[in-house]
TrEMBL record:
Protein's recorded name: Helix-turn-helix transcriptional regulator
Top-rank taxon: Bacteria
Stretch list, region Disordered: 128-152
Organism, as annotated: Blastococcus jejuensis
Family matches, as PROSITE patterns: HTH_LUXR_2
Residues annotated as domain HTH luxR-type: 944-1009
Keywords: ATP-binding, Nucleotide-binding
Keyword Nucleotide-binding: yes
Pfam families (alphabetical): AAA_16 (PF13191), GerE (PF00196)
Signal peptide region: none
Database matches in InterPro entries: AAA_16, P-loop_NTPase, Sig_transdc_resp-reg_C-effctor, TPR-like_helical_dom_sf, Tscrpt_reg_LuxR_C, WH-like_DNA-bd_sf
SMART domains: HTH_LUXR
Amino acid sequence: MSAPAAPVLSAVRATIIDVSRWDDAPLVGRAEELGRLLGVLERARSGRSSAVLLAGDAGVGKTRLLDELTARALDRGVRVLSGHCVDLGDVGLPYLPFVDLLRPVVADPTLAPEAAADPALAGLLAGRPGALPPVPPPGEGRDLGRPLPGRAAPQPIDDGRLQLFESVAGLICELAAAGPLLLVLEDLHWADRSSRDLLRYLLARLTDEPVAVVASYRSDDLHRRHPLRPLLAELVRLPVVERLDLAPLGDADVGALVRGLSAGVPERTVDDVVARAEGNAFFAEELLAAGLQGEALPLALTDVLLARVEQRSPATQQVLRIAAAAGRRVRHEWIAAVGGLAPTELDQALAEAVHHHLLVVSDDLRYRFRHALLREAVIADLLPGERVRLHGAIAAYLRSTPGAGTAAELAHHAQESNDLPGAFEASLEAAAEACRVGAPAEQAQHLETALALWAAVPDAAERAGRDQPALLLETALTARTAGELHRAIALLRSALELLGDDGDPALRARLHYTLAQTMVRVEDHTAAHQESAAAMALVPADPPSEVRTWAAATHARMSYAIGLLAEGDAAAEEALAAADALGLDSAWSDTAVSQVRSRQGRDLPAVKGRLEEALLRARRSGDLEVEMRVLYNLATVAFEAGQVTEALDWTRRATLRARDLGVEWAFYAAELRYLQVNALYMLGFWDESLAEADLLSRVPEMAAHVRAVGLLVQVGRGDPATRERLAWARGLLPRLDAHVLLSMVTAAAEIDLAGWSGDPDTAVDLAISTSRRLVKLWADDHLAVLRLVATALGTLGDAAASARLVGDTAEVERRQGQGQPLIELARSAVAAFHELVGEMGVEGAAWNSRVEAEVARLAGEPAVERWQAAVEAFGFGHVYEEARSRWRLAEALLASGDRTGASEQARLAHEVAVRLGATPLRAAVENLVRRGRLDVALPGVRRAAEVDAVLTPREAEVLALLAQGRTNRQIGAELYISEKTASVHVSNILAKLAAGGRTEAVAIAAQRGLLPTP
């Protein structure tokens, strides 16, 4: 790498990084830092000087934060003066940032007439910094004054510069006399010495003036001998100065930034940018643009990153190339072995790389690049032959030095150096290492690498110790454990195709039943049954064998899944008998679960007893996957019986074990996590529920419903971030259309959100489309439809109630018509369940009670008994829905004239809403209390008598008639006043409620509880 002149490179960097493309970008993740800067601003407004030294890496967002501060300052009436430092190498002009900062005074001398006439400022205000007094040689000039105890001595200042400095300070004070002032100096790391001296003087001089100073600099540019370092050490000792370090953004903030920069950006692109940007806002923007354009690393970003490398010594550049090829983190001995540098030269090169913030030393004493993209840029700049040679040298070192690295590292460097047989063997060993430490995702990745190399290694079968179909099966099983179900299916189909019809029957049978077990997890039950039947046809029942036993166990499960109970029973009995005969405890356990779950009507103690026996056998066999299936069913049985606390106990034990063994995103482990998040939500532990849903930011797509279920808490709380998570979930649905739980949870949250937002049309459309899809995918269990229907009907009931309030009969009929398809969906779902399965579970019965209550409400009936039934039905442990039903029960009791009962139900619902932080429900209950003038004390709710503080008694009467749709003439006739007087009262009501029309006034009054109860 050649090293062009430093000023040219620095100018390129300044141009690329500092050109503001963030004007419209959202400010995310900087609330705390902005708060501190605004605090400095407020001190200036109160008449006290203060300053902040804002530090951060290039591109981390300093300029964007300062832009926001500037905008907030201007909104507060604070004058802002900004100056920018520019790197001009050794020929920099003195005081350049202050010339920039004082341009407004040059443009308008009336801002500071006294200072504008000061001859000492003539050159500065004329924009001719070169005409100003030069920096005196060391030892010459006059000191500013004695240093304070513990403070470094200030640089000497000659008489001419002292006059200039005092004049600048006087100018700033004159400007501040007219109002508070904010001075912003950017890129202080490029400041010339004269500007640094002037800044030191000003910060020492300004103490009791309404002036705030914020100076930014790049911390990654400050090597040990950088001239700004001693000044910073001195300035932070001043009482008015504080330092603010701008750390990289968090992953969630980078994701929010990316979505704000490009609406509708795919989540895969967001995840990629988040992973690679490492909290740097500029890098995120560049990578986003590259992702949308199909580039790997943008040229502009590469230039910025390599500019810092190209300024270093040849030995340092060589060290960086070795480190880049070695990996993100590299041991000292690797660089020493591969680089061929003398020990002293190596130490000097590493010191230079560390001191200039290109490499940092990790806690494990390895070197790593300060930012991963810097490593990417260095790798991209390597010539092909150089890259191969470096990887080959590293691979040779690893082979010759036992314990120097891992098999995964050797596999990578062998492959990059074109040693494909060596990479193949090392990949298999790396997979074995990953298996030993319980890392299925990494194990699958290494096995996939070996499969990709199979054709390029002539003796692959001998080196691997198994043939290619067997390796495909092993990889598929590992991918399934890691939660990559679709990838597992593809691998199994490849193995079957490779074997052909003449392949080993036992291996083909195993592939078929493994494929069936995997396909059922992506809701393809019919195809799964076909695969298990194919497995049964390939191996005989006599003599019993392990393959036949598992084929029968799988076929029993698939037969039960599509309602072929007799066929399932026959296969189950064969599997249980063979498992006992062969001592296959895992196959016995798997079959017992399938058999027990196919008989919903059996008594609960017997079901639990059978499952607990299956758990014992599964653990005895050491088959973790079957053990997780048993645990999932134990939790599900308790959950369906309304024993949510017991279900939660099972899920906690299971998810902890899965996490410890590194299989938390395997199918049943993910389902247990989903059940746990849902149980916590239902029991009212909303903080814990949301925390569990967000435990890991990146999950396999087939486990996306675990994160999506967090939407229920967010919607219930009215969280503004709900729509962001909702957009993420909906973005997955086109690819995962058959993912029933993801579809159901997303739709449930979106329907609920539409309800609280007053959007019944969206709620109805979603409920109908999602319910039909669920019925299609889940042939024997349609009860999930009830939740969607009940919530959508509630939204329609709200719309119909509002229409009745203003006498809009046509609108009431339209909303009732919209409800008919929903009602039919719910009732057909219940009928189908009774026919295919039998009695509904506790939660299904609760939602069915809710549907019937909402049907009555849509018809305009109070239906107190139905709402009472809904409250009681949700009392099994669904805290939120019980409270929401109490709210509706309070409405029904109020309409029936039972004010005491309504008050009690409202109080109970309100207590739960407050405890959960369920803001929309809390507001709805409080509105009911106001509207109905209930005699119940709720925090923050006006008493009934306080309505008079908003409207006069006559205006309240007029408003009541407005709500009935009366005209001004009709109002006048009914109240015995003139039409003109009625019009005046209506105008007053519109003004007091800030309404644009009569209908809006009625809606606002209803929301604020100012309308009398019908």
